[in-house]
Amino acid sequence: MGFAQEFKEFAVKGNVVDLAVGIIIGGAFGKIVSSLVGDIVMPLVGLVMGGMNFTQLFIPLDGKDYENLKAAVEAKAPVLTYGNFIQTVIDFLVIAFVIFWMVKAVNKARANPTAAPAK
Question: Is residue 68 a part of any domain in this protein?
């Protein structure tokens, strides 16, 4: 069997197509969850924490004081942006929580198949 024929058989198998669809849907789902976290969850967390914006939390490594992260970046100061790390951890936790509930719902639906109609 030639390389082209072998590749064609591989590419059109159901598993490869299912994987491609899953990756595309996963990417779109990631955007939805990122919006949920960035536009809904984090503003509420910031409000509860007194208006804190995690993405602005940083430590300048040059020992100088900067008004905000933008000023430090413009001064080309080395910065430890630990607020971005906190934001990413919260993103992950929300995504994991949503996926957990989705998998739980799918497993429950599989465990309780609907009864076949009586003849």
Answer: yes
